[in-house]
Design brief:
The complex is a heterodimer of chains A (289) and B (378). Chain A has two domains: 55 residues, no CATH class; 218 residues, MetI-like fold (Orthogonal Bundle). Chain A has 14 helices and two strands. In chain B, helix 2 packs across helix 3, helix 2 runs parallel beside helix 4 and helix 3 packs across helix 4. In chain B, strands 6-7-8-3-9-10 form a six-stranded mixed sheet, sandwiched between helices. In chain B, strands 13-12-11-14-19-20 form a six-stranded antiparallel sheet. Chain B has a four-stranded antiparallel sheet with strand order 2-1-4-5, with helices on one face. Classes of the chains: A mainly alpha (289), B alpha+beta (378). At the A-B interface, helix 9 and helix 10 of A face strand 6 and helix 2 of B.
């Protein structure tokens, strides 16, 4: 390839990269600037450069004017609970589908694949009806009691989203490529199916676990429709519905950018932590690393 | 250590029957090799012994205990897989200790057994390595070590050397043979390589299409194959076969016309068998002679000559059929040549139209030891 052609390709890639990176950089930089400076720099390169009067004032205002720390805590609990339970539940079902013979296995697999095409929006109303009727477990005077409904709780934002057919399928595809010899060797070594799953399959499946963790994290962290419908009170509200509430108040663009940056940073951190395994999983097309 | 008994063992996949009622006795301490072409059912049979495949019908007894319905982990067997099946995320030590850990063996006992097996297989320096840092031969030894630590009643090997290069295969064959001599356990070994079978086995079980063709020691199968399949499968290069017309038949002899027209008479236990019109004559490549000095001379056209140093393989045509001669390393036969070979009648095998043996070759008498003459020098 000639040097000129190479230069052309590089410029094109830089342009594409700029298009994708511009919103993120603009958001981060604007969160550190006062409102006047945001508009003054809007049509220049300064819009994405951390120059001028930078401070954390916008962040201070966000903490003062909203319960963002409470929403953040709720999001962390909801997301981590769903991801941890989901990794276990989804991988376990995928393990039985891919590595064990039992009656009805083919039908369950077909059902899992069929469920992938049904969006949340299609089932959100019946789901809401269901959870509104289900009682929640509480404690009174040292005794377990059933009370209220699932609405306005953290559980209602966790439990319906633990099992996910797409993630089951991802695990299934990955496990299918692991040679059965390992299972047979472990079986001869006296391992039960759960021990084979725990000691053999899970340690060999780092890439797919990382992939599902990242995808599930993103799914749950960015959830908006379900929390809006199932949670009315502040105590169980996560960050995304919190943005809507925050926008409804008298706030400046700098504060809006600060709020958005604050809720985006954990996503970036998780991706950076798992990116190696995530990329390896995608590159290997589900084959064990 | 244990004996192994298979009684009328069948394997069916729906309507397809792949193993057809096999009966087999394996004595305590024997090294038995299941050999046969791909798809003959040898691995399936091994896996049924291991408990990794369900037996459709019949029984398997290990040490007089019925194991037909017993789970694989409780049969007292250990298996070396063709792919080694070493857990890639565990070190050599952890791989070898895994089975003992599953059995809740105390840590001190695990360490003792792993160290002992590592010493037998010279793996001490490799215990902390992961499988990906091992060579093929080392991985195979770890796979064997994983079976030794469990002190099984029966060792099972499923084509363990097929992934190794030729030189390493020879080396590992010797290692496994030494291991058997040392441990004296019952071992069942599956291979499609008849050389492995001949060199390692106390007893060979030749399988074809889910049936046992013959069971016997390597020499028994070599000298007295019961049918054309066993005769052709055992021995390398494979036996030469020629269709011959039967010109005369009596209770203990057959008069044959060879493809080149020559007439010969061969002793055979015909008894009161119905008259035959055609039989197959078998002669091993190593029993053909380079000169025409044998009882039956034949003229052949040489196609290809392979020099291996100590041996020469000559691929020729005799009466439009391929013929292989195993000659000495200094053979002067050239491709494209027409040359005269010969063989002795007592080296011939005969098979009827169903492939069943009518007679086998007589064993070649052992040559007298060389007499060395002392020579005065100087």
């Amino acid at each position: 390839m000639t040097q000129l052609k190479k230069l052309g390709w590089y410029l094109l890639l830089i342009a594409f990269g700029y298009v994708f990176l511009f919103p993120l950089l603009f958001m981060l930089v604007s969160s550190l600037k006062p409102e006047q400076e945001i508009f003054a720099d809007l049509y220049s390169i300064r819009a994405i450069l951390p120059v001028g009067e930078l401070s954390l004032e916008n962040y201070r205002q966000v903490f003062a004017k909203s319960d963002i720390l409470l929403y953040f805590r709720n999001s962390v609990l909801i997301t981590s609970g769903t991801v941890v339970l989901g990794l276990f539940v989804n991988s376990l079902l995928a393990f039985t589908l891919s590595r064990m013979e039992w009656s009805g296995r083919k039908y369950v697999l077909s059902a899992v694949i069929a469920l992938m095409i049904i969006p949340l929006e299609a089932i959100v109303v019946p789901l809401l009806l269901l959870v509104s009727k289900l009682p929640t477990i509480g404690w009174e005077q040292g005794m377990m009691v059933l009370k209220g409904s699932w609405l306005n709780t953290l559980e209602v934002q966790i439990l319906p989203f633990v099992a996910n057919s797409f993630f089951i399928f991802l695990f299934y595809q990955f496990f299918r490529d692991i040679p059965k010899d390992f299972d047979e060797a472990a079986e001869l070594d006296g391992a039960t199916p759960f021990q084979i799953y725990r000691h053999i399959i899970v340690p060999m499946s780092g890439p797919v676990f990382a992939t599902v963790a990242i995808l599930h994290f993103l799914l749950m962290w960015n959830q908006y429709i379900w929390p809006i419908m199932a949670v009315q009170g502040e105590d169980a509200r996560p960050v995304m519905p919190g943005i809507q509430i925050f926008f409804g108040r008298q706030v400046g663009w700098g504060e809006i950018m600060a709020y958005a940056s604050f809720v985006t940073l954990p996503v970036l951190a998780v991706f950076l932590a798992f990116q190696k395994m995530f990329v390896r999983s995608l590159a290997g097309a589900g084959i064990k690393g | 250590m244990a004996d192994l008994k298979l009684t009328k063992v069948f394997k069916r996949y729906g309507d397809l029957e792949t193993i057809h009622g096999i009966d087999l006795d394996i004595n305590d301490g024997e090294f038995v090799v299941f050999v046969g072409p791909s798809g003959c059912g040898k691995s399936t049979l091994l896996r049924m012994i291991a408990g990794l495949e369900q037996i459709s019908e019949g029984d398997i007894h290990i040490d007089d205990e019925c194991m037909t319905e017993v789970a694989a982990s409780r049969r007292g067997v250990a298996m070396v897989f063709q792919s080694y099946a070493l857990y890639p995320h565990m070190s050599v030590r952890e791989n070898m200790a895994f089975g003992l850990k599953m059995a809740k063996t105390p840590k001190a006992e695990i360490k003792r057994r792993v160290d002992e097996a590592a010493q037998i297989l010279q793996l001490e320096a490799l215990l902390d390595r992961k499988p990906k840092a091992l060579s093929g031969g080392q991985r195979q030894r770890v796979a064997i070590g994983r079976t030794i630590v469990r002190n099984p009643k029966v060792f099972l090997f499923d084509e363990p050397l097929s992934n190794l290069d030729a030189e390493l295969r020879v080396q590992m064959r010797v290692e496994i043979a030494k291991l058997h001599a040392q441990l004296k356990n019952t071992m069942v070994y599956v291979t499609h390589d008849q050389t492995e079978a001949m060199t390692m086995a106390d007893k060979i079980v030749v399988l074809r299409a889910g049936n046992i063709e013959q069971v016997g020691s390597p020499l028994q199968l070599y000298l007295n194959p019961v049918n054309e399949f066993v005769a052709g499968f055992i021995g390398s290069p494979r036996m030469n076969f020629f269709e011959c017309d039967v010109t005369g038949q009596s209770a203990n002899a057959l008069q044959l016309r060879l493809p080149c027209g020559r007439e010969v008479e061969l002793e055979a236990d015909i008894g009161s068998a119905p008259p035959m019109t055609r039989v197959k004559l078998g002669i091993r490549p190593e029993h053909l002679q380079e000169e025409a000095s044998g009882e039956v001379p034949i003229g052949v056209d040489v196609d290809v000559v392979e020099h291996l140093g100590g041996t020469t393989y000559v691929y020729a045509r005799y009466a439009e059929k391929e013929l292989i001669l195993q000659a000495g390393g200094l053979s002067k036969i050239q491709p494209g040549q027409r040359c005269d070979l010969s063989f002795n009648l007592d080296q011939c095998h005969l098979f009827d139209c169903n492939g069943l043996s009518l007679r086998s070759a007589k064993p070649v008498p052992e040559k007298a030891p060389l007499q060395l003459k002392q020579v005065q020098v100087g």
